[in-house]
Amino acid sequence: MSLAQHQAWLWQAILAGGAEDAGATVEGGALSPRARLAIYAGGYRMRLLECMRASFPLLRAVLGERLFDGFAVEYITAHPSRSHTLQAFGAGFAAHLAATRPPHSETDDGDWADFLVALAAFERALCEVYDGPGDEGRETADLAIARGLRLLTLSHPVHDCLRQHQAGAAVVAMPARTTHLALTRVAYRVVVEPLNAAEHAVFVRILDHGLAAGLAEVRAGVGVEGLALWLQRQRRRGLLVGGARGTASARLANGAAAPAGPLPGPRAKRPQALRSRSA
Question: Over 50: is that where the pLDDT of 256 sits?
Answer without folding.
Answer: no
